[in-house]
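W.,

You were right to be curious about this one. When I first looked at the sequence I had no strong expectations either way, so I just let the prediction run and decided to look at it fresh. Below is the sequence, 156 residues in total, followed by the output.
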Amino acid sequence: MAKKMTSLDELYVDPLKDLYSAENQLINALPKMVKAASASDLRDAFEGHLRQTKHQAERIERIFADRRNGSPKGKKCVAMEGLIEEGKEVMQEDMEEDVMDAALIAAAQKVEHYEIAGYGTARTWAQQLGYDRAAELLQETLEDESAANEKLTHIA
């Protein structure tokens, strides 16, 4: 049984670990999406997001290093696991190239929307707790995720 959370600070750590797991799962999933995409601009977007995702995971590591208590590891993001599984199912379908690209965009946007929600919450809690540097790092990632979503919308 999990330990009872008694403060916003304890609650704040939970989504950070969840997001760290999510980013690391994406680092493994995005190369498969690059291979499945046929449009060069979509492949480029996925490759760019892979680089960004690595930086986003590093930002979470920095937040934990600044806290000097604990690690971002130790939690599995089951929501991202499910979103990635949906993306795998899409890639196994027999589709025309442009249809596959549209399906990949939809799968990727589901991921972006999940991350936007998670980073927005974590950023707000960091602000409320007075963790200004963490809030700045989380805002940077939130902006990355929003830009990635907008880029996917443009490609679609």
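Here's what jumped out at me. The longest helix spans residues 97-129. And, maybe more interesting for your project: The CA atoms of residues 75 and 129 lie 22 Å apart.

Coffee later to discuss?

I.
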